[in-house]
Design a protein that fits this description.
Number of helices: 10
Helix content: 40-55%
Distance between the termini: 76 Å
Largest sheet: 2 strands, antiparallel
Shape: globular
Structural class: mainly alpha
Strand content: under 5%
Mean pLDDT: 85
Order of helices and strands: HHHHHEEHHHHH
Low-confidence stretches: 2-24, 231-235
Number of strands: 2
Length: about 250
């Protein structure tokens, strides 16, 4: 009996420790991404801004290829040190990137929507109506078919235009879809990050919307910069520099 008690006493802590380690989360660490200029301004004005919880959505959606050397050349204009950074810092860069993209596309407003009114408007293959771009990244219902995004037109058509309950307006669905679209562009199609055929006009060099996006990319994580100790000297790549880098590809 004494031996049994002794064994129990000695082994129990180790057993508890083992179970505790088994239950520990294996989710990657999330490093807070800096605020884009528009996010900072909105907070000053007391307006809705970027929710830090959205960083996790972006980072969890990233495929391995987007934190590999495969995209180092594409992101170099914004993050010159990407190839030598750790995984956590690379994920933080992408969280910042999508914050900037959402700022340029929708002003960080999850319920933002725009109906296209061209002379010959494009029809959404899902809604059978003129294309309407919606949400943080201004996406469409037909993206559910093209990229496997989690949008439900049957449900959303029963709700008001800007109802935040709509699947296409929920930040989680929008940001996860955005990662899929960009991954398709960079990894599947092998196109550069800045391309005239990009899904988003904000990533097409030369236009006004591209300049808007470029301004939001001036506060990337310090570790991205050539000298990360110079926090006050924020790198500000011009549209000309970015377009030149894209042309080289």
């Amino acid at each position: 009996m004494a031996r049994l008690v002794l064994c129990t006493t000695l082994c129990a802590p180790a057993g508890c420790g083992w179970r505790s380690s088994q239950q520990t989360s294996t989710q990657p660490e999330v490093k807070p991404a800096p605020k884009t200029p528009i996010a900072e301004k909105k907070e000053e004005l007391g307006e809705q801004s970027w929710d830090p919880a959205w960083n996790r959505i972006v980072e969890d959606a990233l495929p391995p290829e987007m934190i590999s050397s495969k995209v180092a050349r594409d992101v170099k204009p914004f993050c010159p040190r990407f190839i030598g950074m750790g995984e956590t810092d690379k994920r933080a860069f992408w969280a910042y990137f999508f914050q900037a993209l959402a700022g340029a596309e929708a002003g960080l407003v999850p319920t933002k929507d725009v109906r296209h009114t061209e002379a010959a408007p494009v029809k959404d293959t899902v809604t059978k109506q003129s294309v309407r771009s919606e949400g943080l990244l201004q996406l469409t219902f037909m993206d559910a078919q093209r990229y496997g995004c989690d949008f439900d037109w049957a449900k959303d058509k029963q709700l008001a235009e800007k109802d935040p309950a709509k699947t296409i307006l929920q930040p989680k669905n929008s940001l996860a879809c955005g990662v899929k679209i960009l991954s398709d562009q960079l990894i599947v199609q092998g196109k550069p990050l800045l391309s005239r055929s990009s899904y988003w006009s904000t990533l097409r060099p030369g236009g006004l919307s591209f300049r808007v996006f470029s301004k939001q990319m001036t506060n990337v994580p310090a570790v991205c910069r050539v000298d990360p100790s110079l926090d006050a000297a924020k790198s500000k790549p011009t549209s000309a520099e970015l377009a030149t880098e894209s042309a080289r590809k």
